Automatic annotation (TrEMBL):
This is Adenosine 3'-phospho 5'-phosphosulfate transporter 1. The keyword Ion transport does not apply. Belongs to the nucleotide-sugar transporter family. SLC35B subfamily. It is a multi-pass membrane protein. Residues 1-17 form the signal peptide. It is found in: Membrane. InterPro entries: EmrE-like, SCL35B1-4/HUT1. Pfam families: UAA. It comes from the Eukaryota. The chain crosses the membrane at residues 33-54, 236-255, 261-280, 301-318, 338-356, 363-386, 392-410.
């Protein structure tokens, strides 16, 4: 079995001819930066040959000269149909369908159904995520148990189920004609995998409430990337709320006593992983925003991204020999199996609830529901896992959520005002 981590860990001792102690292998295997580069090497073994093939077909002008049974597949993957949406209202989501005539009671029931579905899916997902990454399995009076360490396997579990759900949804419902070259999904897929890996891995070094607040602050790098990459302009209130969010997060982080992880190295690792999550996630949203210029539905986007996510993760796991080891861990601990499956189910169902809620009630209502979900997630994590929050930290949390609700309110006001603009005027783009 080809095991890339073992090869990399053995490099320092090859010159001396000494045998690698098992303890040294464990130290290398537990170092998150080492695992990050090992995973990246696995993805590169798929990305580089794929890139060379794409360049080969483009240089050969395969779209004009290609023939045979493989032509439709290669055309879809490399060239696409190049059909773009001319009037894409939001750039990230298709226009919301107008609700059909229904009673107030039916609308209230739909809203409660969406809110309950989102809260249950993502609150359960958050609790299970912290349980899987921070607690042991199989502990007894004589055995301390063992922790599950491979975050990439959890990413693979989530993506394979999301791929299945999205594929079934696209097969059973009418979807727009697909025009984007399939390989373009790989960029969003790669950044999405890395952001999810950083998210899982960070829980080994920081508390879940800290991670939730860090997610709330990702609007800041999204704005920065939009300014640098897309040259977007933003309103003054967007800068104000971004500053309030950064102040609130800083208050929480500086006031929380690190009772679980005392060492400076551990704290620094958590901060770096959170930064990696935010950066990769910001790139994902901006790249998906560009892909939505093609005529596609959100579920088609979900399917395309998860196709490559499954390919990347399963390829990397097989190269490292980690897939079989994770399956053995599942066989040893049935409780972990239940948690991993339920984690994936909640993630896939949550994405479907997102699409349905935005389609029925719009992005503003969805943002309010998800903001409340973040507050409930912090409260639930503190109750279940005993995290402590100081008074200053609580004020920081309040500042963050006040800023988020202010963004929702200001955005709704700007959206109403933009509808009254003259045909020649162009509204300022927003995050």
């Amino acid at each position: 079995r080809f095991c890339l981590p073992l090869v990399l860990a053995s490099l320092p001792t090859m010159a001396t001819g000494e045998e690698i102690p098992p303890a040294l292998q464990d130290v290398w295997g537990d170092f998150w930066l080492f695992r990050f580069f090992v995973n990246a090497a696995g993805y590169a073994s798929i990305v580089v040959p794929g890139y060379l093939l794409i360049q080969y077909f483009k240089r050969r002008n395969y779209l004009e000269t290609g023939r045979g049974i493989c032509f439709p597949v290669i055309k879809s993957c490399v060239f696409g149909s190049e059909v773009k949406s001319v009037h894409q209202e939001d750039g990230s989501l298709p226009p919301r369908a107008e609700p059909t005539e229904s009673s107030t009671a039916q609308q209230v029931f739909k809203l409660l159904f969406c809110a309950a579905g989102l809260q249950v899916s993502y609150l359960t997902w958050g609790v299970l995520q912290e349980r899987v990454m921070t607690r042991t399995y199989g502990a007894t009076e004589t055995n301390p148990g063992e922790k599950f360490k491979d975050s990439q396997f959890l990413v693979f579990m989530n993506r394979i189920l999301a791929f299945t759900v999205a594929g079934l949804y696209c097969a059973l419902t009418k979807q727009p004609r697909h025009g984007a070259p399939m390989y373009k999904y790989s960029f969003a897929s790669l950044s999405n995998i890395l952001s999810s890996w950083c998210q899982y891995e960070a829980l080994k070094y920081i508390s879940f409430p800290t991670q939730v607040l860090a997610k709330a602050s990702k609007v800041i790098p999204v704005m920065m990337m939009g300014k640098l990459v897309s040259r977007k302009s933003y309103e003054y209130w967007e800068y104000l709320t971004a500053a309030l969010i950064s102040v609130g997060v800083s208050m929480f982080l500086l006031s929380s006593a690190p009772n679980r992880h005392v060492s400076t190295v551990t704290t620094f690792s958590g901060v770096v992983l959170l930064a990696g999550y935010i950066i990769f996630d910001s790139f994902t949203s901006n790249w998906q925003d560009a892909l939505f210029t093609y005529k596609m539905s959100p579920v088609q986007m979900m399917f395309g991204v998860n196709v490559f996510s499954c390919l990347f993760t399963v390829g990397s796991l097989l190269e490292q020999g980690a897939l079989l080891e994770s399956l053995r861990f599942m066989a040893r601990h049935s409780e972990f199996t239940a948690h991993a499956v339920l984690l994936s189910v909640c993630s896939a169902c949550g994405q479907l609830f997102i699409f349905y809620t935005i389609n029925q009630f719009g992005a503003a209502v969805f943002t309010i529901i998800m903001t409340l979900r973040q507050a409930f997630a912090i409260l639930l994590s503190c109750l279940i896992y005993g995290h402590t929050v100081t008074v200053v930290g609580g004020l920081g949390v309040a500042v963050v959520f006040m800023a988020l609700f202010l963004r929702v309110y200001a955005r709704s006001r700007m959206k109403k005002r933009s509808k009254k603009l003259q045909p020649g005027e162009t509204p300022v783009q927003k995050v």
